[in-house]
Amino acid sequence: QVQLVxxxxxxxxPGGSLRLSCAASGSIFSVSTMVWFRQAPxxxxxxxxxxxxxxxxxxxxSVRGRFTISRDNAKSMLYLQMNSLKPEDTAVYYCKAxxxxxxxxxxxxxxxxxxxxx
Length: 118
Description:
This protein has strands at 3-7, 10-12, 18-25, 33-39, 46-51, 57-59, 67-72, 77-82, 91-98, 107-108, 112-116. The strands form two sheets. Strands 2, 4, 5, 6, 9, 10 and 11 form a seven-stranded mixed beta sheet that branches. The protein has a four-stranded antiparallel beta sheet with strand order 1-3-8-7, with no helix packed on it. The protein is mostly beta strands.
């Protein structure tokens, strides 16, 4: 069983940067597709970025070019570097581990709040 704990959220001004981390316990991290999702108040959860065990990445159009997903299999860590943050990036960010990016399956973290406001 994989357990996930996110960290690194906080408040930042528009144009600023944050780096989210997701620490995974358990032995299957290295074989899992890891995903960052986010959910803003009153909105549906959306996929932000994903990375396969081979390192192939995928991004939502809204964050492509601003966010970078990465993983360190040796440390069982997932990261999301977020640059040029916008108020619309405000949400709770969750990491997920699974065999695919499908949100219906896998293990979720508890989430970390990101607020972008002047």
